[in-house]
Amino acid sequence: xxxxxxxxxxxxxxxxxxxxxxxxxxxxxxxxxxxxxxxxxxxxxxxxxxxxxxxxxxxxxxxxxxxxxxxxxxxxxxxxxxxxxxxxxxxxxxxxxxxxxxxxxxxxxxxxxxxx
Length: 116
Description:
Blueprint: H1 3-13, H2 21-29, H3 33-66, H4 70-104, H5 110-113
Helix pairs in contact: 1-3, 1-4, 2-3, 3-4
């Protein structure tokens, strides 16, 4: 197994142990454009749930301060929490699938090994 495949997979699997540090380190220190591409994609999919959680918290706070209705705040908050939760699950599955694809990719597979 070549090092590039391991680094590609590690970028995606780092979701479970160091979601921001590992893809950034691989992106900075990697020598190939292919590995840098996979690190960027992994970093983006690791950051999205965090951005969603921040937007959810801010939205609940803004709606809570701007309306006197607890029902409206709760309804909007619950909807956003469910949406961010589903996004997190989908992105976690995406990272798992891409990590497995990176490990099992053939050397001559242009679909997975190219940047396009």
